[in-house]
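Example record for the data management plan.
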Amino acid sequence: MISKRQPLQIPAKQLIQDLIWIIENPSLLHFEVLNELTIEPLSDAQELRIIQLGSLEIKSYKLGFYFEALIRLWIQVSEKYTLKAANIQVQNNQQTLGEFDFIVENLEEQKFEHWEVSIKFYLCHQPKLELEGCWGTQLKDVFHGKVSKLKNQQLQLGKSQNGIKTLKEIGVKSSVSRGLLKGMLFYNEQLGQFENDQLNPFSTKGIWMYHSAWGNTSEGLFVVLKKPFLFSLNSYSKEDILSKKEIQRLIEKNESPLMLAQVDENEGALLEVSRWWLLPD
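Corresponding structural encoding:
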């Protein structure tokens, strides 16, 4: 792995595979919840354009930062959209009220759109509480709270007085707000899953368990995933494959969370079978 002291230089092949992962994995929510934007599949011409652009440097290992960089790249090679502005702060008397992730021009419909995009991996610890029982890597990051913030705060920013003023300053008189929440939900097999009116039942699912339960799992081949490469397996190879016993040794050495992909190897390529999130007891 690259040292965290150095910026990440991500090659074009990795960028393409991670974009394909984002595009093909269903959103966490139903379309109408956030007036969802559609990230369309890459054409051969778009993939070629990414290759021509070359590697992309990012200065943060944060998953959200990389996700936004990928969405920005998709806009850059899109034939339907052009980027007007990104990460514009909305202020009132030097107080920051919020930020627009992306302002894009829809060339086909000749209108501007305000996009709010996010990637989240949620662990469902109390499925009876539905969205309120799913947490991110920090306990304050609750699935229900994220949905509420996107709907009622971030996507409403363009309708506020200060938001309208900020948009006018960059030459945008009006905009349509669209959101996107991608990611995965991790369920514990003993606790079960849940249904919710806002939740997309076809969203990608993984398994979470405590370290002490790892010994009860079946034998398999696994890869330890590290940020920001939690999307495709393009940055991993057969040299990264570990057995169940080797994962057990890792757990015993370091009581920290681990995200794993269970894999099959096919002619040197790693194919993901399932995703696991292991937590200290």
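Summary line stored alongside the record: The chain has two domains: 8-203, 206-281.
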